[in-house]
Specification:
This protein is of the alpha/beta class. It has helices at residues 8-15, 19-26, 34-46, 53-59, 77-91, 105-117, 136-143, 167-180, 196-211, 229-242, 254-266, 300-317, 341-346; strands at 65-70, 95-100, 122-125, 148-151, 161-165, 186-190, 221-223, 248-251, 276-280, 294-297, 326-328, 331-333. The protein contains 13 helices and twelve strands. Keywords: DNA-binding, Transcription, Transcription regulation.
């Protein structure tokens, strides 16, 4: 059974002192004698007293706590964003409360309620895959004057502040690279179109085809019902059955790409010699596949750091401060899955 935590009142009663005297002694107040301070500290250690930092901060008008909501903490991207958030937040004296929605808007709503109850000073979040119509919980945060900064996935909420990647440009670069490798029939494994990330990657894919005079066909796009390995397998099977000779695939997400790669291998289709493959994002497992996957890096840690800096600006300048979205530049990392054999032989190993 958990033992009750020693309170400030308990400590004061044990020492036969007033709570205000004990509080000031623990705060190293100059009006308290060194002997009393030493006595109070010794008793606090013996009774395992831990000050309620949140209550103390709230009395001063600041909780020094930053809430963060992510869709999940699987894979590389969101944990890397969290690393960036914690790095800057800790340096600036903030504690971080992390919640995950598990791609469920109802859980996301409960996350918001919990963070508001904890009186956080701001919320950084990337919305769930099911957050696209009912946005009242997000409006509630803004109505209470709490700084709200989105990162990566941004809802269709007017005057929202966010840190995002240039997903359009990342997709354009990846598809342009496939075209430069000689691909002329390039399919796309697309994500949910209510997500800004998926939508902009589809637009970048289309723009790259158009810029290089290649045709766009609706049947060359498979909309992934989920961002899973199995969805990638099903999508790849669908594209192989529907298209004329396919020689390239651009996938909006990394995990489905692995499923697609498996199907190609099972069917005896060589990657990249027969079909070249590129995808978002730079997950660690993309270097463990055979061949290694060409990816668009999403600047995950930089995104987290930038989101905290934007929050700090909002805290400093007040609700009237309304900066545009901060857009990070993507990086295309070229690996074996998209290089034709002739270039593979020339690449330094």
């Amino acid at each position: 059974m958990k033992k009750p935590q020693t309170s400030l009142r308990d400590l004061a009663q044990h020492l036969n002192l007033s709570t205000s005297t004990v509080s000031r002694a623990l705060a190293d107040h100059r009006d308290i004698s060194e002997a009393t301070k030493a006595r109070v500290r010794q008793a606090a250690q013996e009774l395992h007293y831990r000050p309620n930092l949140l209550a103390s901060a709230l009395r001063k008008g600041h909780s020094q706590t930053l809430g963060v909501i992510v869709p999940h903490i699987k894979g590389y991207f969101f944990p890397a964003v969290m690393n960036g958030i914690e790095k800057v937040a800790t340096r600036e004296g903030f504690n971080v409360l992390l919640c995950q929605s598990n791609e469920d808007i109802r859980r996301e709503q409960r996350n918001i309620e919990a963070l508001l109850a904890a009186q956080v000073e701001g919320i950084l979040m990337s919305v769930s895959a099911t957050t696209h119509e009912d946005l009242q919980h997000l409006e509630q945060v803004r109505h209470q004057g709490i700084p709200l900064v989105f990162f990566d996935r941004v809802p269709d909420l007017p005057q929202s502040m966010a840190v995002i990647l240039d997903d359009f440009q990342g997709a354009f670069q990846a598809v342009r690279h496939l075209i430069e490798q000689g691909c002329k029939h390039i399919a796309h494994l697309a994500g949910p179109q209510h997500l800004n990330t998926s939508r902009n990657r589809l637009l970048g894919y289309k723009a790259a085809l158009e810029a290089h005079g290649l045709p766009f066909e609706e049947e060359w796009i498979y909309s992934l019902p989920a961002l899973t390995h199995e969805a990638g397998r099903v999508g790849m099977q669908h594209l192989l059955a529907q298209m004329p000779p396919l020689d390239g695939v651009f996938a909006a997400y990394a995990i489905p790409s692995v499923g697609a790669l498996e199907v190609l291998r099972e069917k005896g289709i060589r990657v990249p010699q027969d079909i070249a493959l590129a995808c978002f994002s730079n997950e660690p497992f993309t270097t463990m596949t055979q061949p290694q996957l060409t990816v668009v890096d999403q600047r995950a840690e930089q995104m987290g750091e930038t989101a905290v800096r934007l929050f700090l600006q909002l805290l400093k300048r007040g609700p009237a401060y309304s900066p545009p979205h901060l857009i990070l530049k993507p990086e295309l990392i070229i690996r074996d899955s998209s290089l034709h054999q002739s270039q593979l032989m020339r690449e330094p190993r």
